[in-house]
Amino acid sequence: MAQATTRSRFALEQSPQIVHQTIPGTGRGPGVRVAILHDPDGTTRAVIHPTSAMTVAESVISSAVTALRRAGHEGPITTPALSTTEIDAFIRSGFAITTELSLLRCDLGSDQRLANNSSRMPLPADVKLATLPTWRWAGLARKEWLHEALRVDRAAFPLHEQFDALSIDEALHATPRTWVRFAYRRDLDRPTGIDIVGYAISGRAGRRSYLQRLAVEPSHGGRGVGALLCRDSMAWAHARRASVLAVNTRTDNHRARRLYERLGFDVVPGGLVVLTLDGQQQTANQSTSS
User: Fold this and answer.
1) Inter-axis angle of helices 165-173 and 142-156, nearest 10
2) Beta partners for 245?
3) Which positions of the chain have pLDDT values less than 70?
4) Residue 36 near residue 71, CB atoms below 8 Å
5) For residue 266, what are the β-bridge partners?
6) Listed residue (255, 193, 189, 166) closest to 218, CA to CA
7) Fewer CB within 10 Å of terminal CB in the chain, N or C?
8) Interatomic CA distance for residues 83 and 208, integer angstroms
9) 101 closest CA partner among 72, 130, 126, 80
10) How far is CA 222 from CA 97, 122, 258, 276, in A?
């Protein structure tokens, strides 16, 4: 497998090492990208990512699993969030649905519509936004801001949904353009003088934009911090001529869904799912042929 070190102006102090390979499709069908992600803290994950929204052949998935196992990965293999129209071959290959997500999208439309959507909710008076800096600000270097994002994420989500350094890196590289914002308030009791209470990662690819991640410190839940970050992402995407902003959230995260719907997002029928193949398990095709 080919190996590459991720590079990004948003990178953590030590970027994850990503071993990757493309498995070509069969005939006119799409292929997949496979990756083993090695984080400096010892975490290792493997992902199979279809190269298009077309159905992937089971033989391609089998080849991808074989490539990952031969590369030494014995743990679970996951997919990104996929639409329900993309998963049949993965299910037949032994993958199981582990997370169900609601997909929501907002038509950014005109400046006036965006303003109307954004004026529906009150904002916290003591919270401000900062862009991920290129310099030390408030006593924190860039890598420390991103580690603060991980701290907030771990507080905001249950263990199996928390972002790690690999997840942050993937979100930062998911689209050609990325926007990282932090919600903070002044706190003179802290050495830095600030308290980071939320963050958001947004991305744009062509006319489509994505709210890749939004997390709020639980102690500030219900105070409008999530709305502030979401509205900021909407404004950023609109200013860069994106026509829609998409976001996904767990289907049973009713609080998040209510927030997005109040800001003008609509639920897209069908939703998304994440699938996982258990560690050391082979695909159905490989099991029947051995």
Assistant:
1) 110
2) 106, 209
3) 1-20, 27-28, 39-41, 53, 110-123, 280-290
4) yes
5) 105
6) 255
7) C
8) 17
9) 80
10) 31, 11, 12, 33
